[in-house]
Specification:
alpha/beta, Rossmann fold, homodimer, 7-stranded mixed beta sheet, 4-stranded parallel beta sheet, 18 helices, globular, 457 residues
């Protein structure tokens, strides 16, 4: 096919961002602060610094500084896998027969397989700089745990990962990647923490949950000298670090002379979407440009489109601070048949606030439609996408098909967050015809989450 | 660290090779022809065309045309994952404390996880152009099968993969990637072929072998209208297609103004090494430049350094033509404890001929040393390498450490052929301390392969 725009655009190393962009600085209505669960008062720097390392606690609280320098050590390591390519999806456009122009920013070409490494490196760097011995975290599917293991290995920091037991047993490859990078991986619940022992005593046969793994990781961090807890999504500091995705995307589009009409990203906790849209939303907030911005959620876990904008716990175990966000309730458990990732009950406070103000849209997609899109994408574009990422592919394809009907030549940009090499069990179910659409759980059929009692701020 | 050369160098799309380079054209002593196993006479175009599609049979026989156009349809698809980066291994250099300058050409950033896609696309394209319905092949670990499934999906061609039964059962993820790309994957031996049924009758509990899978794939191709058999290594046509690796490497080095002293590649059947070194060896053959060129073999399967340069069967089943090559004998079975890939008994005729003339060296490495190198590389450079590829890493590190002793600032280039995401069982064995060095088999302790009776050409 004839082309003036290359299939892939890479920035030069010298064009890579030297600062993260802090979207909050341009927000008129600032995201509400995290609350101390004991006092229901905003978390102070001192309080946050007991859980997170101090520089990250500062970033969590900073809603006024628009640009924050990326330390040189982080920029150096970014060069091992960044800049990531901005891809013009010529093959997908042709397969769809659409006049739309589709681009995607591909974050999967690194060993963690996703964008998670962008924030893991930052969090490990600041922990090392503070002189800490190590960090603890939880992981479910394993992308975040892998990213953190890589970052800690690079900065020579101990890394303790609590991995949900069912994933630990079913995803031994993910576990081994983390161990290869020197992390210790403990199936959760475990006998290494008080909370783990308590849960095992009460439920000897449990296969674990993310909520329980978070509780163990937090206990491990706060009960050992020289350790802090780190988290891969939801937090404003994570959205800050992930702005490198959007900044590179915008720089590449500017080089090509392209202005997008629609920007699409999948939304679990919001780290990828928040990072991708940051500089575009900044222009929108400053009244310089307008874009349609779409968050894509799974039908089985519609935090934005079905949840309530209220203070809620970030974790099932209710040990973490409260965040004001769109939430289905911290006790929400997504449908068991759901294979597509993005299972988090809440959503980044930054994104929740923007959505509440009507600055972005939310849509939801069924998982069989997601895997149909994923398979088509894999066959024409070559990349086997992660199920999470494929939510954005599905929505982008749907927008492109609307353009086919109307004849509009819209420019669509979406975030392709990762690869699906460790998700073949879900693909197998789809390939065998055993995957079904969303089956509502009992929880889903109850009235929606109503907010916590006594926390209506 | 200060740098004038970027961490990663990508060619522009416009700088990507438009022709493959046929190294044979510059060889004074041409590689010996394939022989018909029935007549022991050189295979004719007609004979080869019964197994391979005609254009590929022509390429197999062409040892005079130096440059062969890459069809535009192939170049178009190459753009989905090429150009691949030439990486300056700054982090590895620093970790080793060597004055050597290390570069690697990374071929793993595509869904097949390796360089195999370069030839799979070519072979699928020519099959489609000839109007065939489909192709058949065998796969062991699954890299080649995955690459072929992707290529056939793109060119809308049926793809039948015979996968060694033990791999089919132990590597379900690889199998599902192939199925996602629309290939049918049959565990071998199977009841779908005469040879499969015969083997199952004689050995009901067998878990299969590559030799058996080849025999089934060849039978499936030759017994069905509109099908041909394809092979991912060893053949001269494959080395031709893989020259895209070396051409891109040389173009990138020329742009940077860098001339390598040493070029290193792992060697199984020879496709990656032959492709990487092609343009450099061409200069050497034409007397324009000199390079040290090193093939790295596993200690357990030293075709070049222990084998005999003689005619032998390419397959264990002895249904394929005879090739003149360094071989351990087509019945050779590598040590069962060997996890590192590169288990092929023979070696590309092109490379065998060059080695026989003293134009390249061969070295061998033990598997624990390979996994030590792989783990160190993963931690400092970020990429989790395939065990096969890690043989080249080990040898490159050893050369760089020699430079540390002598103080020489040599420039070393090696081929990093792929990623290890599907090889975590081997990494697990290493992480657990359960991996041992090469344990010689009974075969190894016998005198070396002596050549076939009556075939001393």
């Amino acid at each position: 096919m004839s082309q003036t725009i290359p299939y892939k655009t890479y920035l030069e190393e010298s064009e890579m961002p030297k600062q993260w962009y802090n979207l909050r600085a341009d927000m008129k209505h600032k995201p509400a602060p995290l609350l101390n669960p004991a006092t229901l008062q905003p978390m102070t720097l001192e309080e946050l610094s007991q859980v997170f390392c101090t520089e990250l606690a500062k970033q969590e609280l900073d809603d006024t500084t628009p640009y924050i320098d990326i330390p040189e050590e982080i920029r150096e390591y970014y060069k091992t896998y960044r800049p990531s390519p901005l891809v013009r999806a010529y093959f997908l456009e042709r397969a769809l027969g659409t006049p739309a122009k589709i681009y995607y920013k591909f974050e999967g070409n690194n060993t963690s397989g996703s964008h998670k490494l962008n924030s893991a490196l930052a969090q490990a760097y600041y922990a090392k700089k503070q002189g800490l011995k190590g960090v603890t975290t939880e992981t479910g599917a394993g992308q975040w745990g892998t990213a953190l293991a890589m970052a800690c290995s690079y900065f020579d920091l101990d890394c303790k990962v609590y991995m949900v037991k069912v994933s630990y047993e079913q995803k031994p490859f993910r576990r081994e990647v983390m161990r290869t990078y020197g992390a210790s991986v403990t199936p959760s619940p475990s006998m290494t923490t008080n909370v783990g022992r308590k849960i095992l005593e009460e439920h000897p046969g449990t296969t674990g949950s993310l909520g329980c793994a978070i509780s163990e990781a937090v206990e491990a961090a706060t009960s050992q000298e020289g350790y802090r807890y780190v988290l891969g999504s939801v937090l404003s500091q994570v959205v800050l670090h992930q702005s490198v995705i959007g900044l590179e995307t915008k720089a590449a589009l500017d080089k090509l002379g392209v202005t997008p009409d629609i920007i699409i990203g999948c939304a679990g906790g919001g780290s990828n979407l928040g990072g991708l849209i940051a500089p575009f939303m900044g222009e929108k907030l400053r009244g310089e440009k307008d874009y349609r911005i779409i968050a894509v959620e799974p039908a089985s876990c519609r935090s934005l489109s079905r949840g309530k904008f209220a203070y809620d716990f970030c974790d099932t175990g209710k040990v973490c601070p409260l965040a004001k966000m769109y939430t289905l309730g911290s006790g929400f458990i997504p449908s068991a048949n759901h294979a597509g990732g993005l299972r988090y009950h809440g959503m980044s406070t930054i994104l929740s606030t923007l959505y509440d103000e009507g600055l972005m849209e939310a849509t939801s997609v069924e998982q069989t439609a997601v895997f149909e899109a994923a398979t088509m994408f894999a066959r024409v574009e070559g990349i086997l996408p992660a199920p999470d990422s494929s939510h954005a592919i599905r929505a982008a394809m749907d927008e492109a098909l609307k353009c086919k009907e109307t004849g509009e030549e819209k420019t669509i940009v979406f975030g392709l967050t990762g690869t699906g090499y460790f998700d073949m069990v879900a693909y197998e179910r789809f390939n065998n015809g055993d995957m079904t659409d969303y089956i509502p759980t009992d929880d889903d059929l109850k009235p929606g989450f109503d907010g916590l009692p006594n926390v209506n701020l």
